[in-house]
Fold this sequence. Notes:
Blueprint: H1 3-6, H2 9-24, H3 28-46, H4 51-69, H5 74-98, H6 104-117
Helix pairs in contact: 2-3, 3-4, 4-5, 4-6, 5-6
Amino acid sequence: MSEEREGHYRVVATLNELVDVTFILKEWEECLEYCRRAVKGLQHIFGSHCWVMTGLRMLRIAFLCAKLCRRELREKAQSLREEGITALRKAEELLEITHGKDHSVFEKDVQRIRQRLT
């Protein structure tokens, strides 16, 4: 799909639905790919101004990378771990602005994902 189409708000909405469905079905690889595409679409539409959705999707990417690291061979696991750490840092940066450091997202989710990635 072209980058222009990926950045259409209806395509991004559909990608977000696919993220949720594949997450529920525990289709981790597909979910990760849809998350990546959703983030690209959000950035295409909103630039750097969609902090909440981008932050939450980056947190989901970090979670999925941590989950998939356990199943992959060493080289791919390292690549996923690096992607997960990068996504987690970006998620923290954005969610600190939108939720604050005292929010349960930081106290529970971010810390749990960080432990899985390190």
